[in-house]
Design goal:
Farnesyl Diphosphate Synthase, two-stranded antiparallel ribbon
Length: 295
């Protein structure tokens, strides 16, 4: 995905940071085994968050073991094998990356298109190994809806964000039922809405120059947003974060490393990302940042 949903490491305690790194390393190993070695090119912080949420919902406590890998051949590093939940994260990541690369082929920027052409055969194979046809069909339904919004030139960022939110809601809740399915769907939905809006804000200048679809650009007629419009977008991101906080609060309340990492992401990591988008936007208006860098 996009790498937005991550903790602010300086505020994690040593043990919590070690747990987070062990989850990240464990997911990397699981992706290699489950959907292919090169699938780790798509390894992202967002799917570590997926892993944490699913582990918390299942009441599982991760246990780390020390292992070597190609990236760290001389020193064993703590690694968490999250079992079936880790394998599910790897498989869903492969599906999402494949669909994202297909979308990048339509991007008007040369670099993204070249990257997509190079990686698409790799992730076509990873998608086959993922073998989740029902979830794949749901992803295609959501992405077809996004394509329709793009073809129409629809200026509603809310409509596009809700569609992407439904996609990630389906991903986060896949294979669950009852209350767990409802909670994880809402977590995924708010993550998806946040990621879509944040990405549209961050790519505002590039999309305006290249003519890529961005509902924010269309809604504002391709011009710079006014301070009031930027504040409205800032508020929309904060509202998605509030919705995410409420959904995560419904997970089992046990205080452990996973819940502390989650709190760091919600109350430090994501707010810092929102502040970054707002700060860079203001600096650009003052001339400190090149025109078109972000909103």
């Amino acid at each position: 995905m996009f790498g937005y949903v991550k903790p602010w490491l300086p505020e994690l305690r040593v043990r919590e940071e070690a747990t987070y790194r062990a989850l990240y390393c464990g997911l990397c190993r699981t992706m290699k085994k489950t959907v292919g070695r090169l699938s780790t090119l798509s390894l992202s912080y967002d799917f570590v968050f997926f892993l944490i949420c699913r582990l918390r919902a299942a009441g599982q406590i991760p246990q780390a073991t020390r292992r070597r890998c190609i990236a760290h051949p001389f020193r064993r590093r703590p690694t968490v094998d999250a079992g079936e939940i880790g394998r599910l994260a790897a498989r869903i990541s492969a599906l999402l990356t494949y669909d994202q690369l297909r979308d990048d082929l339509r991007d008007r920027g040369t670099r993204k298109r070249l990257r997509a052409r190079f990686l698409l055969p790799i992730f076509r194979h990873a998608r086959r190994r993922a073998n989740l046809p029902d979830l794949d069909a749901e992803f295609r339904r959501c992405l077809d809806s996004l394509d329709s919004l793009e073809r129409e030139g629809n200026p509603s960022a809310d409509a596009a964000a809700e569609t992407f939110g439904a996609l990630l809601g389906a991903a986060f809740s896949y294979g669950l039922d009852g209350a767990d399915a409802t909670i994880l769907f809402e977590i995924g939905r708010h993550v998806g809405r946040f990621v879509y809006l944040a990405d549209a804000a961050e790519d505002y200048g590039d999309d305006r120059r290249k003519g890529n679809y961005n509902p924010l650009v269309i809604a504002h007629g391709g011009r710079d947003m006014t301070p009031d419009e930027k504040n409205a977008l800032h508020t929309a991101l904060l509202l998605e974060l509030t919705g995410l906080e409420r959904a995560v609060a419904l997970l089992p309340p046990k205080r452990d490393d996973l819940s502390e990492i989650t709190d760091n992401i919600l109350y430090i990591g994501l707010p810092r990302r929102i502040a970054y988008l707002k700060t860079v936007s203001e600096e650009r208006n003052s001339g400190d940042v090149p025109e078109g860098e972000t909103i």
